[in-house]
Amino acid sequence: MTRPGWRPSLFLAAASLLLVAVPTAPAQQKPPSTAFLNGTEVFRRILFDTGKDVFENGFQPLDAFSKLDDPRHSILIVLGDANRLTEVPHGLRNFVERGGVLFLATDRPPHGEAGAALYRTAGVGVNGTSMVCDDKDSCYHGLPYCPFLRPEDEDSDLFRNLMREHSSLSTVASNAPSYLERLPWAEPDGVPFPPPLAPLARLPRECYPEGGVAMNPMLSPGPRLFAVGGGVEEGRVLVMADHSVFINEMMLQKDNGNIEFAYNALQWMIGHEADQRTKVLFVEDDRINTRFEVPLKEVPDELADRLLDFLLHHIPEAAQKAAPALERDLKQFDQRGGADDLLWRFLRRGGVTPDGLLRGLAVALAVLVVLYGCWKVGWKARHGADSQGPLLASALYRLAPTGTVAEQRRKALIHADNLWEPARNLARQFLTGAGVSGGAAAPRVEVRGGWLRRWTMAGRVKRLWRLAYGAPARLSLSDWRRLLRDVKRLQAGLGDGTVRFS
After folding, report:
1. Other beta carbons less than 10 A from residue 481's beta carbon
2. Within this chain, do residues 457 and 395 fall inside the same structural domain, yes or no?
3. What counts of helices (H) and strands (E) characterise the chain?
């Protein structure tokens, strides 16, 4: 379906220049291309960061439908053309029932067997008719083809922090959406179709088919269904009637909630079993896309700025959700003496005696001391890189100030990939909240549990202390995620009494 283009005045006011490795002069900069505006770089970046928040190595991209043969550990995301649903091994319904996750967003009805597979799985079909709205208050910037979504339940996790004040509408803007419906199909073998999944969102009541005539809201059939979702046996399904909600053009706008909605949708899709589903097959308009890690320099400046703000605010929330389960498993492992037992079992299997182990450790320690001394005296003394200053090209590019001081500083963090300042503030805030004041040495920490837990917790405290009161050092986005995990685990330990500062 051809999507209406944004008005130039609206788009050019929000668009920024594409970042490149060496910035060009401002006079040569151009707005993002049409291909970029209709792309999914922002959605894939959020997908990448969401995976990194939950798993150490993030999501594993799959490159073929045949690799969905392990449903319990797999997620299928389809944006746009959904006719390849028939390629799911053993059928889409079987994939979901065995623990797989389906996340489908499209305004185009799948044809033939693909449509039947969707109906067997979710109990709904995509109508395919483009909807418009004649109520400007229910539309983004009053545009009739961009109605705001109306959640079925305003407290739903899907619309967390996205509700408009004093309104049943959210801040999530669609783009020429269609709607979902029950279809009068029947199984040829007499097997009944499953009941439709729970409704999650609808279009405003004032929406009507494009090219048609607006009806009196009191006489209309009611708000059209936009999204359904829920559990199916051991799996989960989320179906929406518009994939343009997640294209870059909609994410680029600063006054809607589409970025946050994408994050909420991915979190809803993962559910409470995030430790299992590590593989993702991402299908975008009939093509499999395995590139999730989209560099921020490929994203327009303002959008990269907004993404960083979003990550700084939402990653702690994701880390907080994952921390209790990780802490519980580690605590149980330490209480069983699992680390000690595992280590000695490995050593005994290799024929290592305690005396031999001590001699080996002494030799290894001596080698490490020598190597550290060489590095400290030789290499580091000769190669003293500036840990904070940006590259000359980036510095020259930003000589002309734009926006407020805070906005300029956020852009500097993005370009330099250095989050040391907010990380230092977070570390100091945590230590101060735990009753630890600054000093010349790191505080002593008492940890209940096995040696592995004591060692890891002490290391986390030392890292926080160096970050809070030590010399400045470059801290990348991946280091920022590790810092958040460390802080949440220490907070969990302080909360249950297994960690105490002395």
Report:
1. 21
2. yes
3. 16, 15
Burial of 270-305, coded b for 16+ CB within 10 Å and e otherwise, reads beeebeebbbbbbbbeeeebeebebebeebbbbbbb
The pLDDT tens digits for 276-308 are: 788 999 999 989 999 998 876 656 665 666 666
Q: What is the pLDDT of residues 447-502, one digit of tens each?
A: 888 777 788 888 888 888 888 888 888 888 778 888 888 888 888 888 888 888 87
Per-residue pLDDT band at 412 (split at 50, 70, 90): low
Helix (H) or strand (E) holding 92: helix 92-97
User: Quick check: helix, strand or coil at residue 201?
Assistant: strand
Look at residue 2 and tell me if it is in a domain: no
* Domain membership flag for residue 23: no
Which of 40, 41, 46 minimizes the C-alpha distance to 79?
Answer: 40
Q: Is pTM, for the whole model, over 0.85?
A: no
Task: Give the closest residue to 201 by CA, choosing from 165, 244, 154.
Answer: 154
Give the count of domains, the chain: 2
**Is residue 5 situated within a structural domain?**
no
Residue 146, in any domain of the structure: yes
Which amino acid does the sequence have at 485?
R
Residue among 486, 366, 392 at smallest CA distance from 22 = 392
Domain that holds residue 142: 30-294
Residues 103 and 249 in one domain: yes
